User: Fold this.
Amino acid sequence: MAGGFGRYTVLFLALGLVLWAYHRNLQPEREPLELPDHPLIRAKLESEELLNDGLAIARALLVKDGEFKPFASGLTHERHVERVAGVSRGERSSREIVDLLERSLRGEADERNYRAIAIVSDVRFEVEGVPEPQTAVQVTLEHREGYCVDVIARYIRRNDTIEYDQMLASPRTGRVFVDCHPASTPPAGESRGIVES
Assistant:
């Protein structure tokens, strides 16, 4: 009896492997995502890779420390996100750190062949009719193809988590890729009333 059970078990296992292999061969292989040909659409999608990466890091820092100083990243031509070396904090304000990051990125963008850059800051966002400033993460995005925006992502603290709320975006003049002008970037919303944290 035990020997017969063993034969059937092996048979069922072999049959299962054959069916699994057959089913796997039927699944189409996923091709890498191809970006549209339009330069501004491609630039927006590539910039959103830096946006998502920056918001994820900001959330982790806010959960861990409750705040963070500005940091930056760059997107290479191979679409790898590189963290830009941090700036020594000392007694510098967030605005001073952002200025230093912009200067550093202007020098590194060509040398490191960046297609896009992002600078992420913890800011306070004033809303009309609300007495207290709202907490927000600002992500400054600049792309070589002329897509340059400031994105404001409001966030709410709930227990030990950070939840992003409404996101607003407005075109900006490039300070790293200086040929980037608001007139060349499609408007995506409005942001105003940014107060340095």
